[in-house]
Design a protein that fits this description.
Helix content: 40-55%
Number of domains: 2
Strand order of the largest sheet: 1-11-8-7-5-6
CATH class of the largest domain: Alpha Beta
CATH topology of the largest domain: Rossmann fold
Strand content: 15-25%
Number of strands: 11
CATH architecture of the largest domain: 3-Layer(aba) Sandwich
Oligomer: single chain
Shape: globular
Bound molecules: guanine
Structural class: alpha/beta
């Protein structure tokens, strides 16, 4: 079997197009312009790239978009005070504080300071709790897991995963745990595996849906994959690529793509799979936040 390639770039473009249309409709019906504030502290180059892309995409969608760039030595109190200001700002419906933060700032404290109604990252305890108790319609769901679900529904051609075994490799708060909860809410039978799991290949080989979110280059091999499985690779790892020239690098996922594509029925590539979906879903979530504030039922993505 050769897997079909799940095109995250094309799907993300469709999500952004729909967000743009629905935003224009919201503005013409209510005058409300969805607003997003992205906060970045310090000079981490990867974070700067992500934040620039988020701002660019927000403009494309027709949002009111603010980016706050704060220096590395920003005090925790100053960041908390900015968040408080954004919490009170009626023009802002979504707040995202780019992680990681510098070490002298307590990440957990910052995450909990964002108003749950504007927490488009879905990291606040209130939103984590809603997702964990099945209150998804009222929650904000983290963007990468939400994007993975869109891709899985597309690959499987259905929304109800009853009878399917899903294995999530990785138990992070940002990806592994929320994906597991979303899969459970879609009626899949879910296993979360991680670095302390015994005989990982035997567990993954039982998965109809396999999600890799461990951050280890090409760890999932072909003989770990059940024939016909849907494979979602959340990993983005930069490795040396001497074949491209001295000092060159390339991006790979947590899945050994070429060999697993021979076994799976559908698979996400890296790059071009899950990655582009994250920002697209952030736009969808920000529109959702604005609709909820306006008392309008948000579009479903
Ligand atoms: N850094 C890497 N991924 C994320 C994310 O999903 N949200 C935020 N706020 N920061 C990140």
């Amino acid at each position: 079997m050769t897997a079909s390639i799940i095109d995250g770039k094309a799907t993300a473009a469709m999500v952004v197009e729909r967000v743009t249309l629905e935003t224009a409709r919201l503005i013409s019906n209510t005058g409300i312009v969805p607003g997003i504030a992205v906060v970045i502290v310090g000079d981490d180059p990867a974070s700067q790239v992500y934040v620039r892309s988020k701002g660019k995409r927000a403009h494309e969608c027709g949002f009111h978009s603010l980016t706050h760039k704060l220096p590395e030595d920003t005090k925790e109190e100053a960041l908390l005070s900015l968040i408080d200001e954004l919490n009170q700002d009626d023009k802002i419906h979504g707040i995202l504080v780019q992680l990681p933060l510098p070490e002298h700032i307590a990440e957990a404290k910052i995450i909990q300071a964002v108003s749950p109604d504007k927490d488009v990252d879905g990291f606040h305890f209130i939103n984590v709790g809603k997702l964990g108790t099945g209150e998804i319609a009222n929650a904000f769901v983290p963007c990468t897991p939400a994007g993975c679900m869109v891709l899985m529904r597309q690959a499987l051609g259905k929304e109800d995963f009853s009878g399917l075994n899903a294995v999530v490799v990785g138990r992070s708060n940002i990806v592994g745990k929320p994906i597991a909860n979303l899969l459970l809410a879609a009626n899949a039978t879910v296993t979360i595996a991680h670095s302390r799991t015994n005989d990982l290949p035997a567990i993954t080989a039982a998965a109809d849906i396999l999600v890799a979110a461990v951050g280890r280059s090409e760890m999932i091999r072909a003989d770990w994959v059940k024939p016909g499985a849907v494979v979602i690779d959340v990993g983005i790892n930069r490795i040396a690529a001497p074949e491209k020239g001295e000092g060159k690098t390339r991006l790979v996922g947590d899945v050994a793509y070429e060999e697993c594509a021979e076994v799976a029925s559908a698979i996400t590539p890296v790059p071009g799979g899950v990655g582009p979906m994250t920002i697209a879903m952030l736009m969808a979530t920000t529109l959702t936040a604005a609709c909820r504030k306006a008392g309008i039922t948000p579009p479903k993505f």
